[in-house]
Amino acid sequence: MTLNWIDTTTLSFNALLLLERVQLTWLPGWLPEAALGTALHANPAVAWFMRHKCPEIAGWVDDVLARSAPAADAAAVRAAETAVLARLTDLLTYALDPAAYDAQPFLTWDSAELTGLTDFSGKRVLDIGAGTGRLALAVAARAAVVFAVEPVANLRTYLTAKARRLGFDNVYAVDGLVTAIPFPDGFADVTMGGHVFGDAPEAEFAELRRVTRPGGMVILCPGNNDQDNDIHSFLVAQGCAWGRFEEPGDGVKRKYWCV
Hints:
About 40% of the residues lie in helices and about 20% in strands.
């Protein structure tokens, strides 16, 4: 879907200074490199930040700069900056205005699609890629404790404040990734995530299984678009059951669960 969560045309290019290290690793192959090179020539502090915050992409940054030249005028610079910022709408929303993301219609699906999959009462729950807390806060009233694993610091801050505002003192936001969940083997009764699975299915699923106790449940809600694609085939091959549900404004999605 087209993202229009915030108006990126009004943002300073310095907004990139708010990106997390892990987010910077995603940029090669994502951003329009000609525009990025022009923008970085005009914003050397951002180029410096990218190199030093995430040394893994330093060579790529240097290459982008080497293949571009400074713009002739301020209008050309701003056009390049705007092109780059537009591609980062989601990441910049998380950094600048998580409430705008939290208000998106596609997050208003019926929580019973999740809570009806298992009894969360008294359970120790991990929510991976927790974002603004859509899944974590849906189960917090029943669970004993929910650890919301989220790599973006501003989302963790937002989620924690929202949980306290709703009266939950059993929700804790922690840093981590779906491929590097910071909990020991067999820690959770239920491990869940939404819109987090699929970039590296084997590694991700192995990590979800690792932190879930024997007999515990792994839930991906949603875990996929409504397609018989490679992700679907992989999850079914792992023994996952699945079903469909509607995300308002974004269509039918598939959820997956397995013991």
